[in-house]
Amino acid sequence: MVVCGLACWRCRWLLPLLLGLAIIMGIIALAGRGWLESESDPYVQQASLWESCTRGEEDLNWSCVSLMDYGWGRAAAATYLVGFVILVICFALAVIAFSIEILRFNFVRGIGGLLFVVAAFQIIGLVIYPVKFTEEIPLMGDNMFSWAYGFGWASTVVVIGCAFFFCCLPNWEDEVLGNIKPTYYYSSPERAPYLN
Predict the structure, then answer these.
(1) What is the pTM of this model?
(2) Beta-strand relationship, 63-66 and 45-47
(3) 52 bridge partner residues
(4) Burial category of 59 from C-beta neighbours within 10 Å (exposed 0-12, middle 13-18, buried 19 and up)
(5) What parts of the sequence cross the membrane (predicted)?
(6) Residue 169 has what DSSP assignment?
(7) How would DSSP label each residue in 25-94?
(8) What SS3 class is residue 162?
(9) What are phi and psi of 148, to 5 degrees?
(10) Helix, coil or strand: residue 189
């Protein structure tokens, strides 16, 4: 006997959990100083979303310049930050939506639409930053976009995946709510004479 059914109701917290993971990665990206770093020794340059720091090869002290003095720096920070704030709002809405016994699936689809907006804002910020940084900030030595910048992209990829799932979830409303009885497939001896 084979049982065909979807056990999504028990897994309903997976999507809010993924959004929480995207928030954690977004916090790391916003707070991290590793958006751009020197690739090899001597480590003379590092940058975050907010500032760029350099030092001489023999100097131990970093001298930092705020990227908020540049229009593109404010634009990159603002777009990524707006996306992050909308992501936190979507997380709260998802927790509320999945806490209610009777899910409102149009509400869930709206969260998916908002997550696409989050992804658009984050992508804009993540593209503006390296393009304008390499054009307007003098780079010293060999540099690479590093771990904090990678966390920004990881957060964006998770958001895009969650957006698709939130938009497609209403298509399986009955399965998620348990309104469909499982279908049992079996064969009886009368219908399968070849089993004798």
Answers:
(1) 0.80
(2) unpaired
(3) 47, 65
(4) exposed
(5) 12-32, 77-98, 110-131, 151-172
(6) G
(7) HHHHHHH-S-SEEESSSS--EEE-SSEEEE--SS--S-EEEEGGGSHHHHHHHHHHHHHHHHHHHHHHHH
(8) helix
(9) -70, -40
(10) coil
| CB atoms closer than 10 angstroms to residue 49 | 23
| 135-159 as b/e: b if 16+ CB within 10 A | eebeeeeebebbbbbbbbebbbebb
Q: Dump the DSSP string for 91-130.
A: HHHHHHHHHSSS--HHHHHHHHHHHHHHHHHHHHHHHHHH
Tokens of 31: 């707070």
Residues sharing a CB contact under 8 Å with residue 12, sequence separation 6 or more, in sequence order:
98, 176
- Residue by residue, pLDDT tens for the chain (196 residues) are 344 344 455 567 888 899 999 999 999 999 988 888 887 777 788 888 899 888 877 777 888 889 899 999 999 999 999 999 999 999 999 888 877 766 666 688 889 999 999 999 999 999 999 999 888 888 877 888 888 999 999 999 999 999 998 888 766 665 555 556 666 666 665 655 555 5
Residue 39 identity: E
Rg (CA), the chain: 24
β-pair type (51-54, 36-38):
unpaired
> How big is the chain, counted in residues?
196
Amino acid symbol at 181 = K
